[in-house]
Amino acid sequence: MKGANMDILIWAGAVVSLIGLVGIFYCIMLALKAKRANLPDEEMRARLQRVVLLNMAALFLSMVGLMMVVAGIILG
């Protein structure tokens, strides 16, 4: 029974990490889109600040997912 619970933790962590990775790629696409738009300086700054916030959230999500995977491997 213990091994099955750890398998669930590992797979859940992999899914969380994958969601975070998708978020990181989404941030890259947003930044490239903003760069190509040739916006005024203030508007560019506002967009990139939002992208940085999303990027930090995505990185945190990926980190939590990887921690779940490692915890499942160690405890399993």
Condensed summary:
By secondary structure, this protein is mainly α.
CA-based gyration radius: 17 Å
| Number of helices, counting only DSSP H or I runs of 4 residues or more | 2
Outline, from the CA principal axes?
rod-shaped
The helix/strand class is: mainly alpha
Number of domains: 1
- How widely separated are the two ends? 10 Å
Number of strands: 0
User: Could you give a short account of the major beta sheet?
Assistant: none
Q: What fraction of residues sit in β-strands? A: under 5%
Describe what you observe in this structure.
It is a single chain. With 76 residues, the protein is mostly helical. It has one domain. It contains two helices and no strands. The chain starts with a helix and ends with a helix.
Give short descriptive properties of this protein.
rod-shaped, 76 residues, mainly alpha
Secondary-structure map with pairings?
Elements: H1 2-36, H2 41-75
